[in-house]
Amino acid sequence: MKRRVVITGMGTVNPLGNSVEDTWNAVREGKCGIGPITHFDTSELKVKLAGEVKNFDAAEILGPKESKRMDVYTQYACAAAKEAFADAGIDVEKENMDRFGCIVSSGIGGLSTIATEHSKGEEKGYSRISPYFIPMTISNMAAGQIAIMFGLKGMCTSVVTACASSNNAIGDAFHRIRDGYEDAMVCGGAEGVIMPLAIGGFQSMKALCTSENPNRASIPFDKERHGFVMGEGAGILVLEELEHAQARGAKIYAEVIGYGSNCDAYHITAPNPEGEGGAKCMALAVADAGIEMTDVDYINAHGTSTSLNDAGETLAIKKAFGDHAYKLMVSSTKSMTGHLLGAAGAVEGIITALALKDGFVPATINYLEKDEACDLDYVPNIGRKADINVALSNALGFGGHNASIVFRRF
Q1: What residue stretches are annotated with the Ketosynthase family 3 (KS3) domain (predicted)?
Q2: Are residues 109 and 240 in the same domain?
Q3: What CATH code is carried by the domain that includes residue 313?
Q4: Residue 118 pLDDT more than 90?
Q5: Half-sphere exposure (CA, 13 Å, Cβ side) for 392?
Q6: b/e per residue 249-273 (b: at least 16 CB within 10 A)
Q7: What is the pLDDT of residue 1?
Q8: Is 212 found in the same domain as 67?
Q9: pLDDT tens-place string over residues 27-55
Q10: How high is the mean pLDDT of the chain?
Q11: C-alpha angle 343-239-22 in degrees, rounded to nearest 5
């Protein structure tokens, strides 16, 4: 018999807030976390806006010595993990830590450290590179550092599937527990690449929005959308086998019941415009959950605010759900946070779990112009109280990666 898996702890650092409570309050109020880039001088770039993490002091949260040896993406991950672990109320003295694992992802890893150390090498010689350069940059180090922080001795890994990374992390962690390999997992993702090299690279691809108006920049499903807004931060969840959680009297946010993952096998950056891969992925997740497509009430969409993604994802939802697509509520919280790349799915997973728990569907804010290709109920501008029982969260990544998670109200 497959074991049931629940969410017992959550933590986040993102453009809306540096805790789950602050983030959820901002989501409920429909706040926008996007603003002018302050991390560096943007005078040489067309892109001026991002969803930056604000008032974050890594030294205060993690200690000055430890934080100095981490890239910013790992700092975000460890800060979010600290909140999630405390929120779950785990007593490591009472746990079998051999059955407690960690899957924490990053789409890009320590790019800011790579850029800084490369400049140092060019100027001062490559023998002056930091001895921490390699462990700071590799994409698995957030998972490694979190495992070290809490003594997690089960499976520890990092999935790298671009913007689908943290949905894959949550899904893989869910399956590990459901199938009996671990009793509990820390999972999620982190990203910290609001820096000239990354912004320049995405700008050259014409993937980023160049608007200077924060309220008309990240506008998923809106006819005037023309690129995503870079975000940063981390989302971390603690998943546990249901009886394990109940035995220690843990509070439960929601249940994870299904996971689907596949590939478009179509193009390195563009989604399949016919939505085939996304449609099949959502169907896989719902089948894995053992429910009907008509049981789904709400979709937290990938909804990046790019022309191709939003039209393709809308078509995928219609192909997967048929007539039920028009009864679904679909929203993109990237309208508030921007696109957190490898951390997006985890932050959106936290928001989706809270939507179920509180019976509140987040809005797609700053929505003005209807697009004929995007004709679903995107919960425009104002969030809704709604009695939702099952929600699905989508994440799609460069390389054609698709990952969908199904959550149920507990």
Answers
A1: 2-409
A2: yes
A3: 3.40.47.10
A4: yes
A5: 37
A6: ebeebbbbbbbbbbbbeeeeeebbe
A7: 83
A8: yes
A9: 999 999 999 999 999 999 999 999 999 99
A10: 98
A11: 55
